[in-house]
Structures are given as C-alpha cells and as structure tokens.
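From the methods appendix. Each design record in this collection lists the tokenized structure first, followed by the designed amino acid sequence. Records were kept in a plain field format so they could be parsed without special tools. The example shown here is representative of the layout used throughout.

RECORD:
FOLD TOKENS (797 positions):
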C-alpha cells in the first residue's frame, strides 16, 4: 500500500510541470473536447476574447469552421478549414482522445477536414491571442498551427515562408477558393497570380516585388509593417510600411476576392488614442494600385468576367457593356452575356448587317482580344468592317487604327485618356421580333393559300365543309396566340397565390417597413425555394379593375436585370390583393448604413454612390422600357450581403398612378428629394431622378441627412445649402471635419460635391444625364465648375 501511495505521489509530481507549461498558451482545450454547429455561439475564444475558433453560419448554405475577430461586430473571418465544403447544422469538430483534430459532417457521416501532418503527441489545443490556433504536445511545442496553413489572410506576428500561398475566396460570402493567388516564390519574390479557375494552378502574374535578392520570409510585424526579409533578417522590400499600434488597432492583410492584397486596420475603441478613425475596417495600403490595368493575359477572365469592363477604384468595379447583362447578378466573375441574338455566320451573314448598330463607349478596351487589325482606316470604314463580319463583337478605333475583337471579350477595362473608342455591336431591339413576326406571317399566308386553293377546286358541299374547318382552325390559332401572349405579360416572374404568401410571412407578422402606399413583410419560401428569404410588399388601395395594365407594368419591372437593382421574383394578383415578392436584402437600407452610430468608410460609400448611379442608368437607358423612379432616397436603396447598393421600388411610381383617389397631389417622391419641376407643373422627365440622386450623393459624401433641425448652426440645417456655401467659399473641410478618410482624399470629395451640385440645378436642362453622371463618377468625364443652383429650398419648404 505504501509503495502504491509513493508511486502515485511521484506520478503527480511528474504531471505538475507539464500542466503548468500547458497553461502558458491560455485557455487550453483538452482531449475529447468538441464543438457542434448549432449557431454562431459555438466557439472557443482566446484568453483576451479577441479571437475565436468555431462555427460561423454562412447564409443558408451551411457552417464554416473558422477563426475570426471576436470583438469586431461583423466577426471578420481570417482563416477557414472547409470553405469548399460547408457542413450542415449538427456537424462537429472534435479533438479526439488520440489527439486527432477532425471535422465531421452530420448529413453524410464523412470526415470533411482533418488537421494533418503533425505526427503524434498532441495533448491539447489552444486559441491564442495572436489569432493562431494550435495543437501542442506536453512541452507546449506547436505540432500544428493555423498560421502555417493560411487561407486568404495573414495577421501580425505571422510569416509566410517560400512557396507558401494565400488563395482569395470566390466572393465576399463564398469561402471556396477563388480566382487569385499570392505566392512567395522560390526565387524570393512575392507575386500575385490569376488562376486557371476552377483549378488552383497559376495562370499569369499581375504584380510582383521584382527584387533581385532572394526573399526568405514575408513578415507581418507587431508594428503593422509587412516586408520581405533576407536569410540574415534584413529587410529587402516593404509591401506595406504603414506603422499602426497593435495596442489600439486590430490588423489583417487579406487577398480579397477581387484580387487585391489589402492591409486593413480596425480601431479597438473610440478613445483619444485612435483619433477619429471610423469603427470599421479601413484600408491602409493595397497592391496592385490598379488591378484593371495590371492584368494583361491572353487567357482567363481578367480582373472581371468575360465580356465585362473593369473600372479601378481601390479595386475593380465590374460592369457590363451596353447591350449585355450579368450572367449571374450575384457573381460578376461569371461575366456578361448579350441581350440579343448574335450575328449568324455563313452566306446569310452579310444581309444581317442592317439589323445591328453600334453603342459607343469612350476609353473602353479589351486588349489581347483582337483577331484582326487594320491601319490606316477611317472610323466609318472600321464600323462597316465590323458590321460585315459575323465574328466581330466590338471594334476599337483610335487615330486611324482599327481593331476587330471577337467574343468572348476578356481583360476589359476603362483606360482613362487612352482616346480609344469602343464600338459595341448590338442588335436592334425590334429586329429579332420582326424576324419572328415575318416567319409567322409566312406560315399564316401559306395556310390561307392552301385553304383558298382547296376551296376553288372543290364542290359546293366541300366548300361549306372546308369553310367551317377554316373557321375552326383560325379561331383555334387566335385562341392559341392569346394563350401565348398572356404569360408573356409576366415573363420571368412566379405567380403566387395569396395563401402561399400568407403562409410564407406567417400571417404577415414580421414587418420590415411601411410607406404611404405599401407595407413590407419578411417571408420565407419554404416549400419550393429551399427556405429562401424574401421581402413581400403588399400594395394598398390599388385599382382593382385594371388587370391588363397592372400585369403589363409588373412585366416591365420583372424584365429588369441589373446587379444594382433589387430583383422582383414574383407577384400576387388575386381578388383584392396586389402583392409583389422581392429578393431579401440582408443588410437593410442605406439610411441605416449612413446615419447609424459609426461612420462607414469612404471607399465603401464611393462604391455605393457609383452603384446607385449605374442602377439608375440602367433604368433610364438600358432596360427594355424606360423607367423613371420618382422616389430616390436612402430608404429606397437596399444593401446586399457584400454591402452592394440595390435600388428598390423602381416602377412603382407608374403602378401607383393607376389610382389617384387616395392622394391629394400628383407629386411623387419624398420631401427633401423632390425636384422643383414637380411644384411648377413642368414636364416630368428622367431629370427628376438626377435631382434626387444629387441630394442623396451629398448625404453619402457627408454622412448626414439632408435636413437636420438640430444642426450646430442654422446655416447647416439644409445640407444642400451648406454644401454649396462651403464649396463656393473653398471651405469644404467644414463638411468633413469628423471624417479623416475624407480629409485625406479632399480632391475626390470635392469632385463628388461638384457632381452633386450639377445634379441639383433648378433648371432640369442643366443637370447631367444619368449616363454623363455615371461617367463623371467613374472619372471618364471631367467635372466642370458648377453654377449656383439658384434655389435649394423649393423642395423642402
């Protein structure tokens, strides 16, 4: 017995040092521990609580095993295990009694991921305050670490050794491997590559450190500097030389899904030590400076998808050329497709030339796409050459040079000042329909000729019989046409019964918003759409007996397709019920984003302003039937999962005008945003939306409402008045005194204020078109000095 007690005592003594050492990494996770994917509260936190390891729910798609900033409200993810294979609710990650760390999917029972290549001897795991998740042995030696297996992000104190890689995720909310890669090469250079997506193999480099000496490691030090070091530890080149205190700021360097490597910071508090930094991720530096111009490859999609155009603004903004739309509005990398039937080839191709015309776009180019080149050539000759060539999708012309480019187009970008004119070949809107009508008329005529011949060659009895048959055939034909035309009025839209929508909204219980003419409810389409969330807008006091006009307008809205518009999914037109069903926007309205407690960063506000302008341009010029919105305001701009701007309620102005019984005025819009012509009985044109956009742009730029009764000074109550006064007196800094990012980019801020002043001119003819407005925001067209708008107060008083 004494021997046994002595043995036990010695055993306990042996364990004490190991237990003490094991605690040096903070809150250790013992063997046999596990986490279950139930919600976003299933995680292990680091000792300070600044980082967490566990499950994050990614929309409705499943759960991601990840590491994230746990004290940042949006819980920014810095590492993930299963981005390519999300697991379902109830799945577990377990540190087994044998020291194996693995993730199992509950639906298949299969092992989805395992921390491998660390041998044996694991006795605990730990989430460290550096953001590193480790598996360690009894001596606290890290046998496996997330820092050694990075995904798209590196953190302070983390290093990348030679042949290490970062992969960009596919989109903002899709953590599978995307189209870009950062690699520290064996020659010591850090390079950014496009990949041969969907394979991981590299395609073409588009940025490099270009050093002659061999870099051994990429360092991210505690002061926030990112640099390449030689074998002796000396610095070879700086990647980001911004010095920011880790005590005051969270930091990360991420290869974002758009292919740009960015160094971000986020203040840990709002105290004096961080100054007036926004409580949001701000970009300190980024590589490359212009990704649109950097990617110059002869295969692959480039910075944006096939047939698209890239515009630089701290990263690519992707858009479709005139006559093209996104293949998938939620995924710009899939590129654009033509809205028309391309020119056919063969003997009949030449007669088709008259069915096409050219949409012009300045400074737009798709390099390395041409299959033919002519010099010298006039622009008219270049146009005719492209029209006559069935392979030609775009002709680029500059200074007597003509390039013919075929589909698919790639590496598309705006090249400011290049002088290149893009001539985009587009089919006339009516040409396809005319062709179809012509074919149907031929069929109808041949049928009548056949019947006529039979009548002439038959007896009287047969004539009567054939006459009756002809009547039945013609009647059936027109009935058939009527049945074809009816669905066309609601093309691409799903028809919902009132009962379906009542069930989807749980009896219209969860109200998202209410306006003068409609109430919006949150719903979920459980049965046929796999639990898809929707916004259900119930229109009030609609005219009940104008069935055809209602369906025609709904059809017009339903045929719109643009990444900056909220998509109409379907409708209900049953009895007294007129209901519209839209896709659900998870991040609410621009009003909540702009006027909340923390100021959004300047870069994101610029993207939102440009997105709204592009959405308006589509409504005004590019969709099949021109739409004037009539109520552009922050509440009608919704934000998608990636904080992209989506215009909502477009087309409703015309729908609501069907019923004038419930309104005392013909004015459409919201006080403060309404153009002066509404009050003067002047013609209502597209320029009313431009005016409203100008007011909205000032709100986006200044991050405050157009009218603030509690303003510090009476002169500052009306933002439009105050903005013009500040501009005229060269005191724009007064508008942005609490916005450091704006103060550092005063030239751009001034340009945006000038654009807004042009938009809110009292004379509609002085306001820019939506096309010119968009080009000014993109930087393609210079912004001249705006005149005094004369009166800002007419729409407010």
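DESIGN:
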């Amino acid at each position: 017995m004494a021997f046994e007690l002595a043995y036990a005592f010695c055993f306990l003594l042996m364990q004490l040092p190991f237990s003490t050492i094991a605690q040096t990494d903070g809150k250790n996770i013992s063997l046999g521990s596990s986490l279950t994917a139930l919600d976003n509260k299933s995680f292990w936190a680091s000792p300070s609580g600044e980082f967490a390891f566990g499950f994050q729910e990614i929309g409705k798609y499943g759960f991601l095993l990840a590491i994230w900033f746990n004290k940042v409200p949006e819980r920014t993810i810095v590492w993930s295990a299963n981005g390519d294979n999300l697991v379902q609710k109830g799945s577990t990650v377990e540190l087994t009694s044998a020291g194996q760390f693995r993730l199992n999917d509950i639906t298949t029972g299969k092992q989805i991921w395992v921390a491998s290549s660390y041998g044996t001897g694991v006795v605990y795991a730990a989430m460290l305050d550096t953001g590193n998740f480790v598996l360690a042995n009894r001596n606290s030696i890290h046998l496996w670490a997330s820092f050694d297996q990075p995904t798209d992000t590196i953190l302070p104190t983390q290093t990348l050794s030679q042949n290490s890689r970062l992969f960009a995720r596919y989109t903002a909310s899709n953590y599978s491997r995307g189209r870009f890669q950062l690699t520290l090469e064996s020659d010591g250079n850090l390079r950014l590559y496009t990949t041969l997506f969907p394979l991981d193999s590299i395609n073409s480099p588009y940025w490099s450190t270009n050093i002659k000496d061999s870099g051994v490691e990429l360092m991210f030090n505690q002061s926030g500097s990112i640099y390449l070091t030689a074998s002796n530890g000396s610095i070879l080149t700086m990647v980001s030389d911004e010095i920011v205190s880790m005590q005051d700021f969270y930091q990360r360097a991420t290869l974002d899904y758009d292919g740009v490597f960015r160094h971000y910071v986020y203040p840990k508090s709002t105290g004096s030590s961080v100054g007036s930094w926004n409580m949001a991720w701000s970009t300190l530096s980024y590589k490359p400076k212009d990704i649109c111009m950097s990617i110059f490859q002869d295969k692959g999609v480039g910075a944006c998808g096939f047939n698209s155009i890239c515009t630089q603004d701290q990263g690519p903004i992707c858009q479709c050329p005139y006559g093209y739309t996104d293949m998938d509005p939620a995924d710009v990398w899939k590129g654009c497709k033509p809205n028309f039937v391309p020119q056919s080839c063969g003997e009949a191709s030449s007669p088709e030339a008259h069915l096409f015309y050219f949409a012009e776009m300045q400074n737009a180019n798709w390099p390395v796409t041409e299959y033919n080149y002519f010099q010298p050539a006039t622009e008219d000759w270049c146009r005719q050459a492209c029209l006559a060539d069935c392979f030609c999708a775009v002709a680029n012309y500059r200074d007597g040079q003509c390039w013919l480019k075929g589909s698919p187009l790639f590496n598309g970008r705006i090249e400011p000042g290049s002088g290149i004119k893009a001539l985009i070949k587009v089919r006339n809107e009516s040409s396809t329909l005319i062709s179809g009508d012509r074919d149907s008329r031929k069929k109808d005529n041949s049928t009548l000729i056949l019947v006529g011949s039979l009548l002439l060659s038959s007896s009287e009895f047969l004539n009567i019989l054939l006459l009756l048959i002809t009547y039945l055939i013609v009647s059936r034909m027109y009935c058939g046409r009527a049945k074809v035309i009816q669905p066309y009025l609601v093309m691409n839209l799903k028809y919902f019964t009132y009962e379906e929508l009542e069930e989807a909204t749980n009896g219209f219980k969860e109200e998202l918003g209410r306006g003068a003419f409609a109430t919006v409810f949150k719903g979920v389409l459980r049965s046929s759409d796999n639990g898809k969330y929707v916004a259900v807008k119930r229109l009030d006091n609609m005219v009940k007996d104008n069935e055809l006009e209602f369906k025609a307008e709904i059809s017009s809205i339903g045929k719109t397709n643009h990444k900056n518009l909220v998509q109409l999914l379907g409708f209900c037109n049953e009895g007294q019920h007129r209901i519209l069903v839209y896709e659900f926007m998870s991040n609410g309205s621009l009003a909540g984003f702009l006027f909340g407690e923390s100021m959004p960063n300047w870069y994101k506000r610029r993207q939102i302003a440009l997105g709204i302008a592009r959405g308006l341009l589509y409504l005004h010029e590019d969709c099949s039937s021109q739409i004037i919105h009539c109520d552009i305001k922050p509440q009608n701009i919704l934000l998608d999962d990636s904080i992209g701007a989506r215009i909502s309620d477009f087309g409703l102005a015309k729908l609501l005008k069907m019923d004038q019984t419930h309104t005392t005025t013909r004015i459409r819009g919201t006080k403060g945003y309404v153009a002066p012509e509404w009050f003067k009985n002047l013609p209502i044109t597209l320029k009313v939306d431009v005016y409203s956009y100008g007011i909205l742009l000032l709100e986006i730029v200044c991050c405050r409402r157009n009218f603030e009764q509690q303003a510090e000074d009476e002169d500052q109550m009306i933002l439009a008045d105050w903005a013009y006064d500040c501009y005229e007196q060269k005191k724009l800094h007064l508008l942005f005194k609490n916005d450091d990012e704006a103060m550092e980019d005063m030239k751009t801020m001034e340009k945006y204020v000038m654009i807004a002043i042009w938009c809110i001119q009292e004379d509609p003819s002085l306001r820019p078109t939506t096309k010119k407005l968009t080009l000014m925001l993109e930087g393609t067209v210079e912004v001249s000095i705006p005149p005094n708008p004369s009166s800002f107060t007419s729409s407010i008083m």
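APPENDIX NOTE: Residues 432-488 form one domain.
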